[in-house]
Amino acid sequence: MKKLISAFTACVTAGILLCSCSGGSSEAATEDLLKAALDNGTGFDEMVSVEGSDIKYTYDIEESWYDDFAASVAGNMAYAEEAVFVKASSDENVEKIEKALEKRLQSRKETLKSYAPAEFAKLENSSVETKGRYVYLVVCEDSKKALKAAEKAF
User: Fold this and answer.
1) In the predicted model, what is the mean pLDDT of residues 102-129?
2) Exposure b/e, 122-141, CB count within 10 A at least 16 = b
3) Which has the closest alpha carbon to 138: 5, 40, 17?
4) DSSP alpha helices (H): ranges in the chain?
5) Pairing relation of β-strands 47-50 and 128-131?
6) How confident is the model at residue 3 (pLDDT cuts 50, 70, 90)?
7) Nearest to 140, CA basis, from 122, 121, 115
8) How many CB atoms lie within 10 A of CB 91?
9) Nearest residue to 136 via CA among 42, 68, 80, 62
10) What is the phi/psi pair of residue 11, to 5°?
11) Cβ atoms of residues 58 and 102 within 8 Å
């Protein structure tokens, strides 16, 4: 009887650990995550959607790397605001997307550092985040608040 109880407990524990470690099992639509981030009152004005193949031009992300994405950037490139949410098509592509978004963040920092210090500060306070197969970058006046709003949509 003790062996049966121990085996049952071990199975339940293993199941709980597997479920909690799977991360990103949520099937949130990237559009919902983007909307949550943009609609939280942290200063996203005059945003322009990144559509279809523009993800390659804007973020250097290949179409085969993702299942879903939603992104908006400031209409004026002198402003740093942007938000992008990408759901990778596989675990292997998560790292590729992370690198592409890191490269984008660094490029924007280099562009705005010398002539727009206030915008540069927004970039300095932002980072690429990952949750399961979702990779995202949010840049605004209060990136942490925007990220919290988006993460509630998972």
Assistant:
1) 95
2) bbeebebbbbbbbbbbbbbb
3) 40
4) 2-21, 30-38, 54-59, 91-112, 117-124, 143-151
5) unpaired
6) very low
7) 122
8) 10
9) 68
10) -65, -45
11) no
CB 67 within 8 A of CB 88: yes
DSSP string, 132-146: TTEEEEEESTTHHHH
Q: Is the pTM of this model over 0.85?
A: no
Neighbours of 117 (CB within 10 A): 9
83-88: average pLDDT: 98
Rounded Cα–Cα distance for residues 5 and 25 (Å): 30
Which tokens is 66 given?
A: 């993702």
Which residues, at least 6 apart from 95, have a Cβ–Cβ distance to it below 8 Å?
Answer: none
Measured CA to CA, the distance from residue 83 to residue 33 in angstroms comes to 10
Rounded Cα distance, 63 and 59, in Å: 11
Which H or E element spans position 131? strand 128-131
The residue whose two tokens read 């690198």 is 99
Q: If DSSP states are collapsed to H, E and C, what string results for 11-33?
A: HHHHHHHHHHHCCCCCCCCHHHH
